[in-house]
Amino acid sequence: MARDTLTGSRIRERRIMSGLKQAELARMADISPSYLNLIEHNRRRIGGKLLLDIAEVLEVEPQVLTEGAEATLIAALREAASDLHGHEAELDRVDEFAGRFPGWAALLEQSRRRIDTLERTVETLTDRMTHDPHLAASLHEMLSTVTAIRSAATILAEPGEIEPEWQQRFHRNIFEDSARLADTSRSLVTYLEAADDSGAEVTVPQEEVDTLLDAEGHHFPALEEGRADPEALAQQLGHGLTDTARALLLRILTRYAADAARLPLAQLDPLLKAEGPDPLRIAQAAGFDTALAMRRLAQLPDGHLDAPVALAICDASGALIYRRPLPDFAMPRFGAGCPLWPLFRALTRPMTVLREEITQPGRDARSLTAWAVAQPLGPAQPNRDPLLEAHMLVTAANAGSAPDPLPVGVTCRICPRDPCIARREPSILGRPA
Amino acid sequence: MPKHVLLIEDEPNIIEAISFILSRDGWTVNTHSNGTTAVDTVHARRPDVLILDVMLPGKSGYDILRELREHPETEGLPVLMLTARGQTKDREMAERAGVNAFMAKPFSNSEMLEMVRSLSTP
């Protein structure tokens, strides 16, 4: 859906933020509540004087309602606001801020991302200082050796007579300890340099991979056409990534190549034409599993589908291992997603394809269709429960889809839903009006 | 009668230096290097002051100190703990275990000597 058709959703969001009931806004704008309802659900276009009147009642610039801003940017700004200590950001005007000053908003979001990365670097280094057994042992040995050298040197340097036998002994000790100190120092420097070369795990590998995948649009023509093998492509694209991130990238590209070989674009395109972006119907028609169809839909190049799709994949612990967000369906960059996502429910019903209309509240309130399925990883083992992996594909909702989509969040910290039985931690957004 | 200090440390050259410094100051110095048998050695030697390293083979200085504090004969024994880790949390851990004094390596001879002297003074 083009962004200028979401004006109604933005009106609804601003109205809720202002604590106005639909009937109240309708009365103040001199229209019927049912007409406003149609506008808010994007079933009637709005412009001209009525738009100006509604903007005036909601105390916002009209372009805030007509242009809005991307959900992912808004979510990032809300996260940034959660870091503010001693001051309160105007959360109720975050959309207006992002809409009116997109450059500044993007700068703020990027700065916050950079700070996140640097904080993680410090945490990782601190963690290493505390828990790395090799580093701890090396430092302990260095300090012990320095202590022995210092004590012996002080004894020798102090005024007064020392028996020649003791003098020789301390000279020998200093000689031995200085040699030991040199060895330990060299070994420590070698170790730290090696750790630095390997990327030192000071960045978040998953985020490195996410950034690369986003930059490539989650589409790799060389793999589609069988022109490159995943390992060579991972080496080429992963230049500058940490070893761990490169390993993650290779795993993703290997799966991509296998997916493209099983369901090539030439076979997918006619299915897409016949069935639409419906992963279940495509899977049924092609005779493949639904998760493969979901991945292939998310691997399509920009513009191939009428509306882009989002894809989230999680392992059996619920950890997100692949994310392709949508402008209107944000995903957390770190940590867990919203427990209400059908993705996680699918883990409790293996092999059942779930389909549900969902919406992320606090934003454009656009209705989306989520498809989710959990499938076993690897071949079956006798008397062993399968290890599951869940996929969730999010597509634009079809006209005539369920009128009451399930409100889900991005992650608890920036979700206004309250009360919510799934909440893990308080939201920084407080109670919605 | 000279006072008796027991040094439990596994670094031979530190043992030699501390032994020399304390002996020259009039102390009788015994040494021990194994964490596993350290508590038995303390009970057998009955020192006036115990110098205890934290990182020892077999058992940590913290564990040894906790065990000593559970025995009536050693619950009041003055203990100086030596460690290569001088962070606040290490000091706190030593204090919780019942330490009397705490020194981070590398320490100076004079500071160590002063500390042992002060611990032996009631």
From TrEMBL, chain A:
Keywords on record: DNA-binding, Transcription, Transcription regulation
Protein known as: Helix-turn-helix domain-containing protein
Taxonomic placement: Bacteria, Pseudomonadati, Pseudomonadota, Alphaproteobacteria, Rhodobacterales
Domain HTH cro/C1-type: 11-65
GO molecular function: DNA binding; DNA-binding transcription factor activity
One Pfam family matching this protein: ScfRs
SMART domains given in the database record: HTH_XRE
Top-level division of the source organism's lineage: Bacteria
GO CC terms in record: cytosol
From TrEMBL, chain B:
GO MF annotation: an example: DNA binding
Domain Response regulatory per the UniProt entry, residue ranges: 4-120
UniProt KW keywords: DNA-binding, Phosphoprotein, Transcription, Transcription regulation, Two-component regulatory system
CDD domains assigned: REC_OmpR
Residues modified to 4-aspartylphosphate: 53
Keyword RNA-binding: no
Pfam families listed in its UniProt record: Response_reg
SMART domains on file: REC
Example of a GO biological process term: phosphorelay signal transduction system
Name of the protein in its database record: Response regulator
